[in-house]
Amino acid sequence: MFKILNKKVLHENILQFTLEAPLIARKAEPGQFVVLRVNEYGERVPLTIADFNREKGTIDIIFMVIGASTTVLASLNEGDSILDLVGPLGKKTDIRPDMGTVVCIGGGIGVAPIYPIARKMKQVGNHVITIMGAKNKDILILKDEMEKISDEVIVTTDDGSYGIKGFVTTALQQLIDKGIDIAEVVAIGPVIMMKTVADTTRPYNIKTIVSLNPIMVDGTGMCGGCRVQVGDETKFACVDGPEFDGHLVDFVNLMERQRMYRPKEEIEKDHICRLAKKVEEMEEK
Amino acid sequence: MPLVMQKHEMPEQDANVRRNNFDEVALGYTEELALAEANRCLHCKVPHCRKGCPVDIDIPAFIAKIKEGDFEGANAKIKEASSLPAICGRVCPQENQCEKYCVMGIKGEPVGIGRLERFVADYCMQNCEEKIEKTVKDDAQKVAIIGSGPAGLACAGDLAKKGYQVTIFEALHTAGGVLSYGIPEFRLPKDKVVKPEIDNLRKMGVKIEVNSVVGKLFTVDELMQEFNFDAVFIATGAGLPHFMNIPGENLNGVYSSNEFLTRCNLMKAYRFPEYATPINVGKKVAVVGGGNVAMDSARTALRLGAEKVYIVYRRSEKELPARREEVEHAKQEGIEFKLLNNPVAILGDEKGYVKAIRCIKMELGEPDASGRRRPVEIPNSEFDIDVDTVVIAIGQGPNPLIQSTTPDMQTNKRGNIIADEETGKTTKEGVFAGGDIVTGAATVILAMGAGKKAAKAIDEYLIEKRNK
């Protein structure tokens, strides 16, 4: 069992949990993920490690309530425990001291996993420009944290309610147009965002790393459910990734594969809602 | 009393009923049937059956106990050699092992040794108060076992009996390896058979750490140096699914057999939405491959509600690697065998879902290295089968996680760990390996045999170590 030490609501449906997991914290590196199972009935859910503290023996996860599993997860409180937590899984981000200017891009909830990457990029001596994108000002997460660890932070919002009006690629294109010598771009966010980032940098041949989150079960290379097309090869995101060269990833196939269980997700959500209603009714009685 | 030349049939669920449920197919012998079957054993002076058993069970002795009506004694006799009789009685390929050498098989059918083993184990689980005592000694040397499948469990059992402090590290959230995620409920019931066997190990004092991926959470070196394990046994199995590398394999609806079976067995997708993990089966399913895993996948698909399930296999019926019994069961349930067919592509619709599998007809040519006649494509014989789901069950390789983080342990070109066949010794001091991770995908009982051999060698190694 893995105890929830702290629960923070970042936005109405975006939550941050600090979990007691000393063994995982001991080994976690930026870019890696965990797989968790809330209870006996739960799915195995992969989530990128948003932060870790080796001294305190904790890891942080940040998630958006979208499906049945995250709804159940969100219903837990401080002091409650998660049944299963396994990690750190996947390869760590390739971070070297002499890279130069690195642009870290986080879109929406993707800001969470980009945070430890940007922090380490900066720690080892690189110049870090962070671009954070959100639909609007209200759901911008981790802005203060990002400002502390980046040399420069650029915010974009779809509706222009904060920072530059537009997408993360709007800001990225501006940096490129200014002639900034970008050594590498690391982008994490919705698949469509990662695709457009890769499309933006491709003509300039700027190395672009993306972190993929396909559907997976075990997370250790056993099921092959997370396979992604990268160049001529089929890779397993859980063990070969989750980070890949954005210029080689077949994003269209990835998006199709992510939609595989959409109709089933509705059934499951309905099931959870009805369960909750039943519990409520019983409590009223 | 005249000799009964045929094996006594084991009662089983009717094919038309069982294809709609996940309950066990074979129901096991009754006491009467077990006695009658035991009475077919001739108690040969030289019991050839024993040489077919990878763990050397004293088969005539346990059958003699059954004849006496001493089922508990029979169970104890088996347990001297095998710690998991309820499992082996169900999933061992007895026809290629003990029963293959039974003298009765020359003129008739061999004694149903597997069925008798299963009967004895089930009888004792239900009727005997088997008292398991803690054997692990708290000041004994420590052994880490990586993987809780058949090899790991067998090794753990033998080492715990000798008093060693044994910790099993399991990557998934449930112990059992292939017994839990792979072999379906209808062939190997989890709560009735697998869980009690694992609980017995816990009672002996074996620690099982689930959610622990060795290679990530700790390396083999860390286990030995920081966590003070005196020896390590690697039994991580064959967990890396093979695909065919044909067009369309990344379409929605194409599963590896590992994923398909894991979703159903481990995650209980057959009880969706009560259990949250979904599985897409659709109306028509093609399972590619001809081994036990392919049969398991096909029969699982049927039980999940598929209307039509095909086995697509590139050789002929004679070469099917699956156990005869599994093939027969699959046929009885209505699985259609598309033999001498090889998939060349999987076709999808505009949304990226599978709509058909394209196969080419094959014929058998000259025997290849395996001694089996090699399948050869018949030119221009391609045809499509309409399906919503394709399950690839053509075998598994070794997961590279541990090998890649243990640089001073050698592997072969396939990625399997190089280990001595008799002792499991690897090229790294104090590290042993056995089961599918060494041999490539094989059977439960062979893995158990490797686990037992390694336990013996680890014991010898640790005696030497503490006397140094």
TrEMBL record, chain A:
GO terms for molecular function: 2 iron, 2 sulfur cluster binding; flavin adenine dinucleotide binding; metal ion binding; oxidoreductase activity. Residues 1-95 form the FAD-binding FR-type domain. [2Fe-2S] cluster binds at residues 223, 226, 238. Binds 1 [2Fe-2S] cluster per subunit. InterPro entries: Cyt_c3_hydrogenase_gsu (IPR012165), Dihydroorotate_DH_Fe-S-bd (IPR019480), FAD-bd_FR_type (IPR017927), FNR_nucleotide-bd (IPR039261), OxRdtase_FAD/NAD-bd (IPR001433), PyrK_electron_transfer (IPR050353), Riboflavin_synthase-like_b-brl (IPR017938). GO terms for biological process: pyrimidine nucleotide biosynthetic process. Pfam families: DHODB_Fe-S_bind, NAD_binding_1. It comes from the Bacteria. Its cofactor is [2Fe-2S] cluster. PANTHER family: DIHYDROOROTATE DEHYDROGENASE B (NAD(+)), ELECTRON TRANSFER SUBUNIT, DIHYDROOROTATE DEHYDROGENASE B (NAD(+)), ELECTRON TRANSFER SUBUNIT-RELATED. This is Sulfide/dihydroorotate dehydrogenase-like FAD/NAD-binding protein. The lineage of its organism: Bacteria, Bacillati, Bacillota, Negativicutes, Selenomonadales.
